[in-house]
């Protein structure tokens, strides 16, 4: 099996380095190459070179998605994909990240209050994916928090689900959220926004047993989740979810069996940069 990766550093989607290192510890060789994708014809070229799986960077995926003629519905709406995978003798764009996030969420959390709002702190590239994730859980009220206080393709986003209530606010106004919120998702690097971390740590808009998901920080000690747990909230961090995400990918690719789940989740470590 020939594998490739388009980015040397992890962003929303991890590189393949952590998975490769884990498998090496199990005496399973999983080499991969750095590859370049800039147009849809590159996909055919990679297929001819024998590649069966390419891990994408979301920014690069966004640039090329609009150039691919046939896309799955979730990729077409989200505008990004996390991999190209060989199916029916073709390398096809697929977006598994949000499906795995939902699967892990429902396994981990019970009695989630979907009648309350979901707050999404994220950028335009991955925004639609998180909106569909929140909707898939049953949320109808969604509050987007970003630097601009606006989103691209606002009309398209609002028309995606006619029953959805959508509000967009600026980062500095996050403390003004005055409705009950049961879910908060963050993908911002809070080290770059210390005042935002301070504001979020009050959790004044979060309801009892609300859930805080932090998908950016790679640190084993996460200040936002630490404060969330102090406030009696439930939490999920990037390290926890990415281990699950990569296990599901390794399972799909045939590198592990379902019986290895606990060992994988305990021993996988994301490697941020490929040398």
Features:
Rossmann fold, single chain, 2 domains, 275 residues, 11 helices, 6-stranded parallel sheet
Q: How large a portion of the residues is in β-strands, by DSSP E?
A: 15-25%
- Topology-level CATH name of the largest domain: Rossmann fold
- Compressed to H and E, one letter per element, the order equals EHEHEHHEEHEHEHEEHEHEHH
Number of strands: 11
Which second-level CATH architecture of the largest domain applies?
A: 3-Layer(aba) Sandwich
Distance between the termini: 22 Å
Q: Helical region count?
A: 11
Short recap of the structure:
37% of the residues lie in helices and 21% in strands. It has 275 residues and is of the alpha/beta class.
Task: Provide an overview of this structure.
With 275 residues, the protein is α/β, with parallel strands linked by helices. It folds into 2 domains: 2-95, Rossmann fold, CATH 3.40.50; 99-237, Rossmann fold. The chain is built from 11 helices and 11 strands.
Break the fold down into its secondary structure elements and pairings.
Blueprint: E1 2-5, H1 17-25, E2 32-34, H2 40-48, E3 51-55, H3 58-65, H4 73-78, E4 83-87, E5 90-94, H5 97-108, E6 117-121, H6 124-137, E7 141-146, H7 154-160, E8 165-170, E9 181-186, H8 194-200, E10 206-214, H9 223-230, E11 234-237, H10 238-253, H11 261-267
Parallel strand pairs: 1-2, 1-3, 6-7, 6-9, 7-8, 9-10, 10-11
Antiparallel strand pairs: 3-4, 4-5
């Amino acid at each position: 099996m020939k594998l490739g990766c388009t980015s040397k550093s992890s962003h929303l989607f991890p590189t393949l380095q952590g998975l490769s290192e884990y498998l090496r510890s199990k005496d399973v060789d999983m080499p991969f190459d750095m590859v370049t994708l800039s147009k849809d014809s590159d996909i055919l070229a990679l297929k001819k070179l024998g590649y069966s799986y390419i891990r994408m960077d979301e920014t690069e995926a966004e640039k090329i998605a609009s150039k691919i003629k046939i896309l799955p519905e979730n990729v077409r709406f989200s505008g990004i994909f996390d991999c190209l995978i060989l199916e029916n003798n073709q390398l096809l764009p697929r977006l598994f990240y949000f499906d795995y996030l939902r699967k892990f969420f429902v396994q981990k959390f019970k009695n989630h209050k979907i009648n309350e709002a979901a707050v999404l702190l994220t950028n335009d590239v991955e925004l639609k994916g998180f909106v569909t994730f929140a909707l898939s859980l049953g949320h109808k009220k969604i509050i987007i928090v970003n630097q601009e206080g606006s989103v691209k393709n606002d009309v398209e986003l609002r028309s995606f689900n006619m029953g959805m209530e959508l509000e967009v606010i600026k980062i500095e106004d996050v403390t003004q959220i005055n409705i009950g919120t049961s879910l908060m998702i963050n993908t911002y690097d809070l080290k770059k926004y210390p005042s935002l971390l301070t504001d979020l740590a009050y959790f004044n808009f979060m309801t009892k047993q609300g859930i805080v998901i932090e998908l950016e920080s790679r640190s084993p000690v996460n200040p936002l989740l630490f404060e969330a747990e102090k406030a009696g909230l439930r939490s999920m961090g990037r390290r926890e979810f990415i281990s699950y995400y990569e296990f599901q990918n390794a399972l799909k690719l045939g590198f592990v069996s379902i019986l290895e789940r606990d060992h994988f989740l305990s021993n996988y470590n994301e490697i941020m940069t490929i040398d």
